[in-house]
Amino acid sequence: MLDTTGTRFSHVKPADTEWKGGGLRDFFLYKDLGVAEATHGKVIAHLVKANEAPEQGTGWHRHEAEFQIVIMTKGWARFMYEDQVTLVEAGDCVHQRPGIRHFLFDYSPDMEYLEIVGPADFKSIDVDPVCEVPAPTPWK
């Protein structure tokens, strides 16, 4: 079948890209998987991992995105999705429907997840608090 989407083939090995700061959250590190470039910005796929202990968390926010999934590859994270505490553990997959208000407030030191979002230049918008958020678990 002929590809008429204009996207390119991409194959990124672990050593091809480095973990970098400067992403959406200062307390995480990000590893680009080459998908945004290959899809001309239609989709981004990156690995995200804990870099600092959770103190403030992400705060309440929503994303302007058409599609978003998180696949936890290591460790765990606790999110508030609207008013529900949700524990996401290694192997879990979460589809975050467009516009869902959420707050990542706690995670393990070894937390790492794959995030796939479309479009690649999605926006994160702060929102008013939905409810009280539990305290994070202190790292030892």
From TrEMBL:
Sequence intervals crossing the membrane: none
SUPFAM superfamilies in UniProt: RmlC-like cupins
One Pfam family cited in the UniProt record for this chain: Cupin_2
Coiled coil: none
Residue ranges occupied by any Cupin type-2 domain in the UniProt entry: 53-103
Domain of life: Bacteria
Name of this protein: Cupin domain-containing protein
